Amino acid sequence: MSKPYVVHGQKGTGSVPVEAALHLLGEPYEVVERGPDDDRPAGNPMQQVPVLILPNGEVMTESAAILIHLADTHPASRLSPAIDDPRRPAFLRWMVYVSAQIYALVWARDDPSRIVADKAQEAVVMERTRERMAFCWRMMDARVSPGRYILGDDLTVLDLYVTMVSHWGPRRPRFYEEAPKMAEVVRRVDQDPRLAEIWATRLG
């Protein structure tokens, strides 16, 4: 019997869509819950989650890369478009876009003192990163043509990713306003009965 995947994660973080993907794939996995000040080694020198330990012991970090890997290594799941699928370029584009343009801002929002020394400027950081995230959602929404899901009729890990990240600043009400097309997709993923328990227990 192969070893299970091990997810080092935390409620309400980028580890949640990884857990959701593993659940949809029917893969056995364990979660190592890590608090915000947890300094136990997890295989990531950045001390960030998620970290995924593959059954062969290899360590993966970076949520978008993990999700793409899981989907691509389980092609029958249709959680990612195949290499020769015409939707593949858009899939890669938006996975990286969400990670680089939106998710990356959370590092500053979690603790604005990481980038400003003046306490009075922390509110400015929060306001400007919030507006940047809203802008990025708006730009993405203008460039996608969803079906039931963002790339068409198949649920992919992109839908899981957007569903999770849209909970963060500027939070769901603003996301719905800025990204009305993706809002319909996110509501559908929220209500997917296969994911109900994960969303209920792991969103935080």
Task: Describe this structure as you would to a colleague.
With 204 residues, the protein is α+β, with helices and mostly antiparallel strands. It is 48% helix and 8% strand. The protein has nine helices and four strands; from the N terminus they run E-H-E-E-E-H-H-H-H-H-H-H-H. Strands 2-1-3-4 form a four-stranded mixed sheet, with helices on one face. Strand 1, helix 1 and strand 2 form a beta-alpha-beta unit. The radius of gyration is 17 Å and the shape is globular. The two termini are 32 Å apart.
Key terms for this structure?
alpha+beta; 204 residues; 4 strands; four-stranded mixed β-sheet; 9 helices; globular
State mean pLDDT (0 to 100 scale): 94
Number of helices: 9
Estimate the strand proportion: 5-15%
Q: How large is the radius of gyration?
A: 17 Å
User: Which structural class matches the secondary elements?
Assistant: alpha+beta
List the strand order in the largest sheet.
2-1-3-4
Task: Produce the secondary structure layout.
Layout: E1 5-9, H1 15-25, E2 29-33, E3 51-53, E4 59-61, H2 63-72, H3 88-102, H4 106-110, H5 122-143, H6 157-165, H7 171-178, H8 180-190, H9 196-202
Parallel strand pairs: 1-2
Antiparallel strand pairs: 1-3, 3-4
Helix pairs in contact: 1-2, 1-6, 3-5, 3-6, 6-8, 7-8
